[in-house]
Structures are given as C-alpha cells and as structure tokens.
Specification:
- Its cofactor is Mg(2+).
- This is Geranylgeranyl pyrophosphate synthase.
- Helix content is 74%, strand content 1%.
- By secondary structure, the chain is mainly alpha-helical.
- It has one domain: Farnesyl Diphosphate Synthase.
- The longest helix has 28 residues, at 195-222.
- The chain starts with 9 loop residues before the first helix and ends with a helix.
- The relative contact order is 0.11.
Length: 332
C-alpha cells in the first residue's frame, strides 16, 4: 500500500502513481533470494506495505526534470530499501512487537536473524545504487553513516553539559531527515533537474524530516490507538527522549512550577502498568509543552516551504508544499 499523493495536477498524479507501481515490483525483485530463509525474511517488510513516502518523494521531485528517466525507478527503490533496512534494526533495538500491522521480524525469527536481514536488505540497496554510478554510492554511504550516527547518539544521549534539545534535533536530522533529503536529491539528480534544484531539495528534505519527527512526538501522545495501531505513550513507557519531555525537563531545571516537577517525576517513574501510563499520557497531553512541540514542528515545516521557494513555480512545487503540510498536520 502506498501513501496517497497530495492534491496535484491529474497528469502529474497519474505519472507518479504509475511509476510507483513499477517501484513496487522493483522492490520485490530486489529482495528475492535463492536462499529460502533470506528470501522470506527480506520480503517481510516489503510485503507489509507502508506509506512509501521516500520513493514517492523521489519520483515527484523527478518531475522537476525528466520525470520519465529510467534511473528514477532504481533511485526510488534504493531509498526505500535503505529505509526498510533501518527498520529491521530499529525494531530489535526498540523491542517493537509490531511493524506496519504485522509481527516484527525479530518476533518471528529472533534478534540475530532480524539484524542480519537488515544488513542483507541494505546490501541489495547498495547493489542497485552501484548501477546509478559512483556519486550515488557516495551519497548513499554518507546518508547511511548519518543514519547510524543518529541511532548511536540517541542511545548514548547528550554529552555532559550539552544542550539536550539541540542534541535531540541533531538526532532527528541524522535518523530521519538525512534519508528524506537524499530521496528528494535523487529525484533531482536522476532527472537532470540541475545542481540548483538539487541543492534546494536537500535543504527542503532536511527541514521536512525534522518537522515530520517532531509531529510524531505529538502524535505519540494525542493519537487514537485504533487509527495508528499503537498505544499512545509508547516512547514514554520506554523512557525514550521526545521533545515534549525534553522541554518539560528544561522548564523544571530552570525552576518551573511544582506541577511541572510533579509531572516530570511521574514520567520518570515506572510506566509499565497500563493505567499508570494512561494517566501520564493524559497529564502530559494537557501540558503546554505539547503545543510548543507542535509549534516547533510548524516552524521546521516553514523552513522546508521556504526552501521550496528556490524551485520553479508549477505543479511539482505546489505538490511538495501540500505534501509538507501533510507531514505535520496528520493523525498517524
């Protein structure tokens, strides 16, 4: 299942949708394997579907040049396979039982096989990227390095004396925004849109990716479990730093109210009980740090929109603006 395109010119929508069908088949071909176990584990997340946000962005940005260029399909497959590879690893680290409505790979085959499968999928992404040329390989390697650094720094936390909020924003930039920027960049590169368009799309993707993840922090607290398929407050339960909690911690450190300190103590406590977690979610949801996080997401959204101002006017730019709004103003 692919993500819905934002409202765009019908001819553009039809063209991107048609190429997405080709990308879907390219993904399945890429993870096919003569080894039965490797084939089954590698197909797992491809078959589970998902929003396909990154390959769609590549194809959409490709229409700033030659949207029918053959290499765009492989470029779109590369960014989605890279994303899927990271999900295998993320689910092991987060002990996530479900991914995209299906049991996580580590739940089915164990942690070791899930990690190795993530490596296999990235190997397939690299093989396809090799056909796109040395510059594509260099960009993919740099992007994957940032994905790893983002995960590393999230686990390690900020250095003593460092600003936790700035550290968190850098984690978001590396873990999410880097691949979104590369997805948009590949669209420009392999459609011949030119270096100025490429640079604008990199700036756009970096800002849009941070906005997307800050919106996720709000959604984790305010979402309906029946819509998202996950329990609100999962990050709170696991004591994973998110922007609302970091902002609350910052207020308490600066001498906030007794109510702020009481809420922070609750969030730092054992939240394994569902009722306790629900109470913590309700309390944090009512605090204005959630509204502040939403405002920060909207500020990063505006940075992304501003970067699009460097692109030529037309249906692609309009579609990207609408797409950016949808990244922030969503419920899942």
């Amino acid at each position: 299942m692919t993500t819905a395109l934002p409202p765009v010119e019908p001819a553009l929508a039809d063209a991107v949708t048609a190429r997405m069908a080709v990308v879907e088949q390219r993904l399945r071909d890429a993870v096919a394997h003569s080894d039965a176990l490797a084939g089954a584990t590698s197909r797992h997340l491809v078959d589970a579907g998902g929003k396909r946000l990154r390959p769609m962005l590549t194809l959409l940005c490709g229409h700033l040049g030659d949207g029918a260029a053959d290499q765009l399909v492989d470029a779109a497959a590369v960014v989605e396979l890279t994303h899927l590879a990271t999900l295998y690893h993320d689910d092991v680290m987060d002990a996530a039982p479900v991914r995209r409505g299906a049991p996580s790979a580590h739940e089915l085959w164990g942690n070791q096989i899930a990690v190795i499968t993530g490596d296999l999928v990235f190997a397939r992404a690299s093989a396809i990227a090799a056909g796109l040329g040395p510059e594509a390989i260099r960009i993919l390697a740099a992007t994957f390095e940032r994905l790893c650094l983002g995960q590393l720094h999230e686990v390690a936390g900020p250095d003593e004396g460092a600003d936790p909020v700035a550290h968190y924003l850098q984690v978001l930039a590396d873990k999410t925004a880097s691949l979104i920027a590369t997805s948009a960049r590949f669209g420009a590169m392999f459609s011949g849109a030119g270096p100025d368009v490429e640079a604008a799309l990199v700036a756009y993707g970096e800002a849009a990716g941070v906005a997307f993840q800050l919106a996720d922090d709000v959604i984790d607290l305010t979402s309906d479990a029946q819509v998202t398929g996950k329990t609100p407050g999962t990050d709170l339960r696991d004591h994973v730093p998110t922007m609302p909690v970091l902002l609350l911690r910052e207020r308490v450190a600066a001498g906030g109210t007794a109510a702020d300190a009481e809420l922070l103590a609750l969030l730092d406590s054992d939240l394994s009980d569902d009722a306790v977690l629900a109470g913590a979610v309700t309390a944090l949801r009512a605090h204005d740090v959630v509204a502040e996080t939403r405002a920060r997401a909207q500020a990063w959204e505006q940075r992304a929109i501003d970067a699009l101002g460097r692109l030529p006017e037309g249906p692609v730019r309009e579609a990207l603006e609408t797409f950016t709004h949808s990244l922030v103003d969503r419920s899942a």
